[in-house]
Design a protein that fits this description.
- By secondary structure, the chain is of the alpha+beta class.
- It folds into two domains: 1-54, no CATH class; 82-179, OB fold (Dihydrolipoamide Acetyltransferase, E2P) (Beta Barrel), CATH 2.40.50.
- The protein is built from six helices and five strands, in the order ααααβββαββα.
- A five-stranded antiparallel β-sheet has the order 3-2-1-4-5.
Length: 180
């Protein structure tokens, strides 16, 4: 199909109609002599008569499988949940005051601990929402139950919130800075 399209494109001044082309190799009139070499190169490249050796075919198949595998692997590594969150935040964030309901630590192994804060806030529609955030120890230690906290939530999805100082993935921070 590409060859026919390119052939018609290069031969349009010669009066060759696309409906008249039944094969890839068509006799070209002498009025197109100035573009003849480029047309022939394109026709040879797209023609079925160009044969490859079995080694070339094998390399092309192997290369194709490798490229498709790399594309699929790359797409599987994209953090779509972070992309969705930042898409909602792109439409703007509202600020409100929340109340800390609980402080806790979560141990992930021998040395690694997370400091988590649970909080409630009321969105623009008057619905009470609950969320949690992982904070650095220095910020976490400043809060206690019933402390007031400033909450930012997405205007288009009020259940998606964050607080200042929250630990977020580096990719998310980079993406947010890129979108701003």
């Amino acid at each position: 199909m590409y060859a026919l399209t390119l052939f018609y494109y290069f031969n349009a001044p010669c009066g060759v109609m696309a409906r008249d082309i039944s094969h890839l190799h068509v006799i070209i009139s002498h009025s197109c002599a100035d573009i003849l070499p480029s047309v022939l190169k394109i026709m040879v490249y797209f023609s079925n008569r160009h044969s490859r050796t079995p080694a070339q075919k094998g390399i092309r198949i192997l290369l194709g499988i490798t490229v498709v595998t790399l594309i699929i692997y790359t797409l599987s590594q994209v953090p779509y949940d972070i992309l969705r969150e930042e898409r909602f935040r792109l439409f703007g964030e509202e600020y409100t005051t929340g109340i800390v309901t609980d402080l806790r630590t979560q141990t992930n192994g021998d040395r690694d601990s997370q400091f988590i804060i649970n909080y409630k806030y009321i969105d623009q529609d008057g619905f009470a929402r609950q969320a949690e955030a992982s904070l650095p120890r220095e910020i976490w230690s400043k809060y206690h139950p019933s402390s007031r906290i400033r909450v930012m939530y997405a205007r288009t999805k009020p259940g998606l919130s964050r607080i200042k100082g929250e630990i977020e993935p580096k990719f998310q921070i980079w993406l947010r800075n890129l979108l701003d």
